[in-house]
# Entry
Amino acid sequence: MRCKGKMIRRMSSEKIFLGLVTFLWGYHAFFRYFGIVLKRIPSIGFIFLSLIVSFLIIGSIPYISKCVRSKDLLLGFLAIIVVLVTLLVNAKTTEPFNEIWPEFLLQCFVMYYVGLALHKKLHIDNGLLNILSIVSILSILILTIVFNNTNGGFEYEWSSNQYIPYSLLPHILLLMADIFKKMSIIKLLVVLYGFFNLVMLGNRGSIVCFLVMFLLLTIYKTISMNVKKRVLLLLGIGVFIFIATFTNLYDIALKGLYQYALDHNLSTRVFQTFLGEYTAGTSFDSGRLDIQKVLWQRLAQYPFGYGLGSDRYFVEQYAHSIILELLINFGIIIGGIILIIVLVKIVSGLRIVSEDSCVRSIYLISFCMGFVKLFISGSYLTEPYFYLLLGLSVSLIRTKKSNLQQRGKIIRLERDL
# Structure
């Protein structure tokens, strides 16, 4: 009876964890805005939403704890100590961190532990996440239109050309990855529709992430192909590049979309960038190089780092480069060590997912959203996908190491027999 009771609790915790993953995946679409509606209900609305979120988090802890090792706990304690020391010292250069530390600990860093536990669940059917992605893409765009001119929590986020594309992007990437596994006309149409809106919203960072994801999926796909199919694919890509480079179809297509955006009062930043119209605010760096130049100068003056959030102190915003941000925060030595560790984990993860297609989709999404994006927009202090990527990477490495050890034991047993 005790064993049965433990099994029920364990299964319940696993199901609750899947509920948490589902909630997080659909959070930026209807789940989030149902939450805003609930909060507007007098007295009970906020309490009801808080209870739902608390139930999902607390109920998932038993399952997540089974995937956490002592090293992971030590990492968590170290992060808390760094935060506490930063807050207690209260240096002038770390004042911006005072406003974002709750988000860093409670919304971002905890995703490392979600990533550790999520790896085991990625081998199940992701049909529900695909449905959520289709609904999310359509819901986000509908909500953008409906709530664009409303107040009370809608106006800022849904009129922001930065917020909407990055809310759409992970869902578009998941559907694109699923198309590489098995062609679906519905998913293809939704992806094309989503990508078209990314372009029209004028967020170039999301487009770069999309292209990186497409390139990685293509590379992994060619690995599993035979020589004939691989040659045909490369030939097709070569023909496409030739047409885009040596004909005027590329310019005609871009100018046509550019005119469409102008006629419908949409963003033209993407087209101005690729057509070479580098007016104020339309060049690809958008002032990033000036920001980074100031920070590199500060780092040269004091190479030991200025503390968490110090990039915001010097330039009043994040560094737009995870490498520079780590170095300006922790210094060349400690920051360099952290950067090397992060790169080793990520590169190892990318190698492992080349052999495991079940994990590949979510891992590559986390890579694009949590690493590639941080060279263009966002900060490692406020990007949950960065920590989800690290958790997934560590879990993949551990699983591969464990499998190799088990194979070694089996080989030794067979030899002994």
